[in-house]
């Protein structure tokens, strides 16, 4: 989808013209959904491009938040277009508001899974809610009270991601989250529960290590002198 969607950005006008032509010909509802099948693109991705074109000449175009109109299609002034966009949200299992809600729920599920495994391993830790009470704006899912070592690498925090860690996602998370954790708490562990390509691994990276599970071969740091 990501590879194809990049190509669709330059085709915004084409999709818009095809949509208008279909409406002019009084085609049955589901025009955009059928377009998505034809071009092998998720319905909501095409819907976003058509909405952008629809609002392009509007006086409030710069204030438009397309995602708001996907979440609540009743806000779209054009009734026919509103129904078309609504159908896209029903038939899209990857980029619809409903799928985003499901992804958020899945993320919470795996955060709980991480907490349970950390407790089972007997590690003392603080969670995001506790850290935010002390003024931290960007916090990992788990901040260890006492560092531990995994494969000879000392970690101070653990971040859970219930997704496949592709290069784009990893690059974005590294920039906006992981490096902040490293600056504040030292090196840590990132878990992509659904795997990751080896291309994101950096040899001798001293900021964080990447796994698809929480290892159990943990070496506990002794507090005795």
Structural class, please?
alpha/beta
The figure for the number of domains is 2
Question: Into which percent range does the helicity of residues fall?
Answer: 40-55%
- Count of helices? 9
The gross shape turns out to be: elongated
Integer average pLDDT: 89
Radius of gyration computed on alpha carbons:
23 Å
Q: What oligomeric state do these chains adopt?
A: single chain
Name the poorly predicted regions. none
Instruction: List the secondary-structure elements in sequence, H or E.
Output: HHHHHHHEHEEHEEE
User: What profile does the largest beta sheet have?
Assistant: 6 strands, mixed
Percentage of residues in strands: 5-15%
Write up this protein.
The protein has 225 residues and is an alpha/beta fold. The chain folds into 2 domains: 9-95, no CATH class; 101-220. The protein is 48% helix and 15% strand. It is built from 9 helices and 6 strands. Strands 1, 2, 3, 4, 5 and 6 form a 6-stranded mixed sheet that branches. A hairpin with a 2-residue loop joins strand 2 and strand 3 (153-161). Helix 2 crosses helix 4 (43-54). The chain is elongated. The model has no long low-confidence stretch (mean pLDDT 89).
């Amino acid at each position: 989808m990501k590879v194809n969607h990049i190509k669709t950005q330059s085709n915004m006008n084409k999709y818009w013209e095809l949509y208008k032509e279909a409406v002019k010909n009084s085609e049955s509802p589901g025009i955009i959904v059928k377009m998505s099948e034809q071009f092998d693109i998720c319905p909501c991705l095409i819907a976003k491009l058509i909405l952008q074109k629809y609002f392009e000449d509007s006086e409030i175009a710069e204030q438009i938040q397309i995602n708001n109109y996907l979440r609540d299609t009743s806000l779209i002034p054009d009734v026919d277009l509103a129904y078309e966009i609504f159908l896209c949200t029903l038939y899209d299992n990857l980029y619809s508001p409903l799928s985003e809600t499901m992804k958020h729920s899945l993320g919470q599920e795996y955060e709980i899974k991480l907490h349970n495994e950390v407790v089972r391993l007997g590690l003392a830790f603080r969670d995001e809610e506790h850290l935010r009470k002390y003024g931290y704006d960007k916090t990992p899912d788990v901040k260890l009270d006492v560092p531990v070592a995994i494969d000879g690498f000392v970690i101070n925090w653990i971040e859970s991601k219930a997704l496949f860690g592709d290069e784009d996602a990893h690059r974005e998370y590294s920039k906006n989250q992981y490096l902040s954790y490293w600056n504040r708490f030292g090196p840590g562990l990132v878990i992509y529960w659904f795997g990751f390509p080896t291309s994101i691994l950096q040899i001798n990276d001293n900021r964080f290590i990447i796994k698809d599970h929480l290892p159990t071969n943990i070496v506990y740091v002794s507090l005795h002198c």
